[in-house]
C-alpha cells in the first residue's frame, strides 16, 4: 500500500539513526516491518490481537527465519524493559485510547520511545476508515494531549503522505467502500473490519500492479522524497509521532 510505504520510509529513516535495542510492536499485522528492523540489529517482538494476522506473521517468519521476530501469543508482562514501542495505525481502532497509551507506557523503560502513527484529521473521514474499523481520526493537538496524559513527552510529530497518499485516498474511495464488511442493516461491521484490516490488501492490488513497474518504483521514490517538503504542514493523511516516556 502506498501509504504504508510512505510511513515505513519515515520510520526506517528514524530508527536507522538510533542505537539498536529491544523493540516491541503492538498491532504488528504480518510483521513485515519487524523483519526489516531485525536486519538492522534490533531485538524484535511483535503481537497482534487479530488471530489471522498472527497466523500470517508466523508463516512469513517460518519462510524467513534469519530475520524472524519473536511472535507473542499474548502481550508480554509490563516490566518496563522495552527500549522502543511501535504502534502504527493502532490507536484509532481503540475506544479507550487514553487507557491504551497508559498501558503501553508500562512496557517502556524510563526514557524509552513510543513511535506512533494515526490517521490525520476528522474532516478526511471516509470509506477507508469504515473499511479499517476506525473509531476516529486525530488532530495534532488531540494526539499530543492523549500522549502527554499517558506519561509521554512528545519529541517529534510529522504529518506525512502529502501529496501522494492524498491522491491515492481519492482514487481508492470506491474500492474501500465496496470492500467494507457490513451488517444485515447495511452499516459497517467495525469489529469484523478491524479484525482483517491489518492483512487485507485487496484495496492495494491495483496500486501494487503500478508500483511494481519501473515507472511505478520511480514515482514512489519521488513520493517519498516529496513528502519531506510537507512534513511540518497539516496537509498529509497521517501523523507520525515520537514520544519519550517521562
UniProtKB/TrEMBL annotation:
Keywords: Methyltransferase, Transferase. PANTHER family: TRANS-ACONITATE 2-METHYLTRANSFERASE-RELATED. Pfam families: Methyltransf_23. One of its GO terms (molecular function) is methyltransferase activity. The keyword Acetylation does not apply. This is SAM-dependent methyltransferase. The keyword Magnesium does not apply.
Amino acid at each position: 500500500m502506498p501509504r504504508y510505504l510512505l510511513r515505513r520510509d519515515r520510520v526506517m529513516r528514524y530508527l536507522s539513526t538510533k542505537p539498536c535495542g529491544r523493540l516491541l510492536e503492538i498491532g504488528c499485522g504480518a510483521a513485515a516491518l519487524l523483519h526489516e528492523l531485525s536486519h538492522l540489529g534490533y531485538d524484535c517482538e511483535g503481537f497482534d490481537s487479530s488471530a489471522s494476522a498472527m497466523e500470517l506473521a508466523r508463516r512469513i517468519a517460518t519462510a524467513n527465519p534469519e530475520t524472524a521476530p519473536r511472535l507473542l501469543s499474548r502481550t508480554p508482562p509490563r516490566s518496563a524493559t522495552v527500549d522502543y514501542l511501535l504502534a502504527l495505525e493502532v490507536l484509532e481502532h481503540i475506544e479507550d485510547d487514553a487507557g491504551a497509551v497508559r498501558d503501553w507506557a508500562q512496557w517502556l523503560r524510563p526514557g524509552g520511545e513510543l513511535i506512533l502513527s494515526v490517521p490525520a484529521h476528522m474532516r478526511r473521514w471516509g470509506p477507508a476508515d469504515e473499511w479499517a474499523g476506525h473509531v476516529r481520526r486525530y488532530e495534532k493537538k488531540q494526539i499530543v494531549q492523549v500522549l502527554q496524559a499517558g506519561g509521554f513527552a512528545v519529541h517529534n510529530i510529522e504529518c506525512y503522505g502529502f501529496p501522494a497518499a492524498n491522491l491515492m485516498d481519492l482514487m481508492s474511495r470506491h474500492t474501500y467502500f465496496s470492500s467494507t464488511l457490513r451488517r444485515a442493516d447495511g452499516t459497517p461491521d467495525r469489529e469484523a473490519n478491524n479484525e482483517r484490516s491489518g492483512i487485507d490488501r485487496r484495496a492495494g492490488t491495483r496500486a501494487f500492479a503500478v508500483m511494481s513497474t519501473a515507472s511505478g518504483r520511480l514515482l514512489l521514490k519521488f513520493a517519498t522524497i516529496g513528502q519531506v517538503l510537507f512534513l511540518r504542514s497539516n496537509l498529509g493523511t497521517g501523523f507520525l509521532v515520537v514520544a519519550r516516556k517521562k
